[in-house]
Amino acid sequence: MMENGKKIWITWEHQRRSIVLSKEFGCKLYIYDKNYSNKALRYLSAILFTFIVVIRNRPEIIFCQNPSVVLAFQLSLLKTFFTYKLIVDRHSNFMFNLEDSFKKKIFTIVSDYSIRVADLTIVTNEFLKNNYIENKNGRGVVLQDKIPDMGKILKETDRSRKTVFFITSFSRDEPILEVLEAIDGLGSEYYFYFSGDYKKLNEDIPVKGVNYEFTGFIDEDKFCSVLDSSHAVMVFTKHEHTLTCGAYEGLAKGKPLILSNTKAIKDYFKSGSVYCDMNSASIKRGIVECFENYSELKMQVLELRLELEKSWNEKFNDIRTSIFQ
């Protein structure tokens, strides 16, 4: 299949990885990002949107983001009739951290079908490729996030205190309460910005405290402004086999990273970082350690950025060649 054939990228959420990869692969990007209070209505609307996009474009190659698994399933079904090549960018959306349930069984059936039908499924580490793609008779490749272009690396603007940008979406896999407990004992010498939709927390916690504030959703310019002003970036997940998007954003701006103590994260973000277990005592120690070794971590993270950029470009070129051959 020629590289100049018609290529599109479809996603049902606004996510930096899809924006970056669609551009790198030369795809026209279609984002469905409407919100409905009724989930069933949103799914029906998104499915119709996707069907219309496929009908109008008649592409030779479709890339899609999973999540949503429903989007990947729909495009797998349509592939039979429209005979396009289907590439699924899967991240780590496998529900492997959830207990068995009827919902998980249905998810697994739908997921396994799309893995078998897709011509290629892109994941972020070898464990997922070996255990969740190739074990399901799929074809997988590993491609982590590209370090985003977020402008020049600037000096921190807040010199009066030690500032940390906690990049979070207030999801269930993030230790929000543990972080709040950890920073409560650090005092006003430190200051923490929490990004994301804090209303998901469902806790009676003030939006602004002595040494923290919840920013809520902020646009790209404001996000970069907070990132520039901060000394370090903190991103956590309780899940193994998961790489966090916020860590790439911190890396792009040359910020020392405070990350989860998991194998997947330590293997990829192998320097310029402090690793924490997901309890308040470990998180507090990690924050203090970051600033005790700040100059060394800063130098390491800049070196790591260059190393990962080179490695990513090599992987991407190999994958692009295999898709468009």
Please describe what this structure looks like.
It is globular, with a radius of gyration of 20 Å. It folds into 2 domains: 7-143, Rossmann fold, CATH 3.40.50.2000; 162-307, 3-Layer(aba) Sandwich (Rossmann fold), CATH 3.40.50. Strands 2-1-3-4-5-6 form a 6-stranded parallel β-sheet, with helices on both faces. By secondary structure, the protein is an alpha/beta fold. It has helices at 16-24, 39-57, 69-82, 102-117, 126-133, 176-184, 220-229, 245-252, 263-268, 280-292, 294-324; strands spanning 7-11, 28-31, 61-65, 85-91, 120-123, 140-142, 162-166, 190-195, 212-216, 232-235, 257-260, 273-276. The protein contains 11 helices and 12 strands.
Map the helices and strands.
Layout: E1 7-11, H1 16-24, E2 28-31, H2 39-57, E3 61-65, H3 69-82, E4 85-91, H4 102-117, E5 120-123, H5 126-133, E6 140-142, E7 162-166, H6 176-184, E8 190-195, E9 212-216, H7 220-229, E10 232-235, H8 245-252, E11 257-260, H9 263-268, E12 273-276, H10 280-292, H11 294-324
Parallel strand pairs: 1-2, 1-3, 3-4, 4-5, 5-6, 7-8, 7-10, 8-9, 10-11, 11-12
Helix pairs in contact: 2-3, 3-4, 6-10
